[in-house]
Design a protein that fits this description.
Helix content: under 10%
Shape: globular
Structural class: mainly beta
Bound molecules: copper (II) ion
Order of helices and strands: HEEEEEEEEE
CATH architecture: Sandwich
Strand content: 35-45%
Length: 116
């Protein structure tokens, strides 16, 4: 339970509903990436990452009725439950370029980390 001030900032950002979204250009690598689980699945569905750079995903499930009550990233042995309205932090460092799949436990609702 170490204190992570940036996490609070990110959570309030997520709650603001993207009021200050920086649209137009790709987000610079390095900062945590917020992912929401909505009726449409993971949003955004594609996350950019770079080889050798730690990637932090902060996943928040926003809907009760969804298949995706956990996130599974097989390539990294990650399996984390997604409690409703709770930000869940997932950290990984891509080791090679390509695509890393993240999905629900049944591999139906899915998204992709595009690694360059
Ligand atoms: Cu599923």
């Amino acid at each position: 339970m170490s204190s992570k001030p940036w996490l609070f900032g990110l959570m309030s950002l997520a709650m603001a509903g993207g009021a200050c979204s920086r649209s137009g250009s790709a987000k610079p690598a390095g900062g945590p990436v917020a992912i929401a689980v909505t009726a449409h699945g993971f949003e955004p569905k594609t996350v950019q990452a770079q080889v050798g750079k730690p990637l932090t995903l902060v996943v928040t499930r926003k809907v009760e009725r969804t298949c995706a009550t956990e996130i599974v990233i097989k390539d990294f042995g990650i399996e984390k439950p997604l409690p409703l309205d709770q930000a869940v932090t997932v950290e990984l460092t891509p080791t090679k370029p390509g695509s890393i799949r993240f999905a629900c436990a049944m591999d139906m609702v899915a998204g992709e980390i595009a690694v360059k």
